Amino acid sequence: MTTGAYPQIRMRRNRRDHWNRRLVRENIVTVDDFIWPIFVAEGEGKKEEIDAMPGQFRWSPDRIAEAAREAADLGIPAVAIFPEIEKAKKDPDGSEALNPHNIVVQAIKAVKAEAPDIGIVCDAALDPFTSHGQDGLVREGYVVNDETIDVLCAQSVLQADAGCDVISPSDMMDGRVGAIRKALDEAGHDHVRILSYAAKYASAYYMPFRDAIGSSTFLGQGDKKTYQMDPANTDEALREVALDIQEGADMVMVKPGLPYLDVIRRVKDTFQMPTVAYNVSGEYSMLKAAGERGWLDYDRAMMEALISFKRAGADAILTYSALEAARLIQSGYEG
Ligand code: PBG
User: Would residue 304 count as lying in a domain?
Assistant: First the structure.
């Protein structure tokens, strides 16, 4: 069967040669797009591979700067630091989050000293620190909003004091962006940015991360559905993003990434804000596992996933593949 335009219009002409494909390419992933999440754990001289995330490591504070230095040398603009807190230091209120000498603070200082040119992003959330693995304070079985926010504000200021450039509230409490903005400003940190996890879903794709920070065994059968979003909703995501922008977010994030490309597109089209996608742990580990079995070509599948974020409208991507992708791009990879 032929259409009227055929064969005058042949879509394949522009695909015939490499130079032509390059000319008509609409999207590009560059090293400038990446934020690399890295993990800090208690101890000394430690670089320990994370079981559920092959190729990702937990670094002790005295070594984590090596990771940041490597990223900086590849031209990656920023790292996001996540802690694995030892069991003995976890309690129901996550009080270790406010210890001015905790491993997040130590890591921030070490990275700043060793790689001053790379941006540092840190979560505002309590789940690495709480004995129950929830992101906030639990009162009568419910994660309470306003009381949690007071702690998140103190946590944010502590991290900013240590040299953190970007506070990233990942807790999904209502009103936390505005409160954190105010707390940062009052502490003299008006230049510290807020990247809000604006549309964060109650997702099954965070499981390897919870293994990495050691919160899964504590969370047990618990879930985060009373604060993280229902995967069925997108109008609600726009309301969440609108509120965070109104409260002063500098950048907004959609999380997870691949199963939520439609949300990224709607957010970008609606708000024209710097929009960040979180290519989360489960998305990374799926490709890694399939790659290890020879079921997928990991590099190609990973790069295809990254370009999908750009196509969906993301300006930047938190991805565990940042180093691998940066190296591929530098070696001239084009897919
Ligand atoms: C903590 C937090 C989570 C992730 C980032 N910050 C897990 C969660 O909400 O349970 C997930 C990141 C990933 O899966 O890569 N609030």
Answer: no
